[in-house]
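Hi support team,

I'm filing this because I wasn't sure whether my run with iron/sulfur cluster finished correctly. The job status page said complete, but I'd like someone to confirm that the output block is well-formed before I use it downstream. Pasting the exact inputs I used:
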Amino acid sequence: MTLELVCPAGTPAALRAAIDAGAHAVYCGFNDETNARNFPGLNFSRAEMADAIGYAHRHDAKVLVAINTFPRAGDFALWTRAVDDAAGMQADAVILADLGLLDHAARAHPSLRLHVSVQAAAANADAIGFYARSFGVRRVVLPRVLTVQEIAAINRDIAIETEVFIFGGLCVMAEGRCSLSSYACGNSPNMNGACSPASQVEYREEDGDLVSRLGGFAIHRVKAGAPAPYPTLCKGSFEAGAYRGHVFEDPVSLDAASLIPQLAAAGVTALKIEGRQRSRAYTQAVVRNFRRALDAHAAGRPIAAGELRALTEGQQTTAGAYSKTWR
Amino acid sequence: MTNRVSEHPSIPRFPRSGAAALGFAPLLPLNLAAGRLATSLARRHPALFERLGEQAGKNFVIDPTDMPFVFRLAPQPQAPRLRAERRGSAGAWDARIAGPLAALIGLVHGAYDGDALFFSRDLVIEGDTAAVLALRNAIDNEELDLVEEGLALFGPFAALAALPASRLATLVGGLAGVALTRRSGGSFA
Ligand code: SF4
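And here is everything the job wrote out:
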């Protein structure tokens, strides 16, 4: 069975680039707090989403609409409206994290395909079984904390599809549960849709060093010529006792292209590329590369890996938790 | 992590001799063209300005670091302004985006990824990060071609100017190491 390639799109142009480069499915969100990439100038108006779904369907591709933040108390209608609109536009699936929203989608749109977002951090067969039984969920996006062996064990015990991240920026905590950005900025990535919101980020060149501040706190100082990281606290440099450096995680990106055969053998249905915040140049290059890799795998040919390092944060890549070689 | 990255190997720099010569050139003709380009962009690409949302009220300095001047952009949809200024004479701004001319043009044409240029330090951003992101995303979605936009300034004579313009773009682009046009674009057709 061919693995499905699920690709990011932050704009209609990126969606077209992804599909033209060979994406089987594209995930994207509305331009509000209902999705976890609520960045300035990004995402789709209602009209753009409807057009995008039409374009995808004409090109035999699917559109999965991410409505994967957690609704704020008193504001539930913003989220249910997003689900209702996606269903009305014939989206191929919605990607949800919140139990209440899953319940709404299952009741109001029984034929709409439901995927559990990575934001739900469903990391064991029991939790996934609960989503499947309660809401008829068809696929779960697994959090990036599992080894390939753990993914295989989960797949043996569940009856629905699994999707895993194959490439892109790493959110190193169990997703949906990180409060680092909330602590520094006062806005929750999980409810407002942006980790390290741009409005709270400041870059300044100081004596040739690049200094990044988040919510007024200096979180990186990078020497001239060294790669710059995203302004996220998890990749920040801090002093802890005698240690000075990256306390949580180095600024590296996920590239698990070389693990495609193992992930397929572990029973994974779909591979996901991170990066809705990236440009169409990134989308095109990464999607093309991974579509080639999947076609090579399907044809029994070796997979060329590591060609995309220049596009990655930290310009270094890791296989992440899949092979547990990180610290 | 302290491993050093080299400058993006594929980003050409504008020839120093050319930049030095341009340093003595008057800015008036460039400013006239830039002003008309901004007005024409607002007319031809309203979605770009919609996508900017509240960030359209910000003042941007676009700084091609291998050129002797910078551009100041105020993208209000009703009265957008774009003008060239000598580096150093640029007054207050909300956001500054700096990098080699080829990188900046490559961003407009979708040849480069803004985040990747930022990671590799080929692109420097300062000031209002939300404004920079909004501008970057809005431009990326618009699939602009600078030669096409330039031609649009010729109005009904655009078709006549198309062939010489594309030849000139290839020639000048080749000399300066800058891709002045992009190959393809699209809409949901
Ligand atoms: S701070 Fe890091 S781990 Fe936390 S949400 Fe942001 S990217 Fe993820």
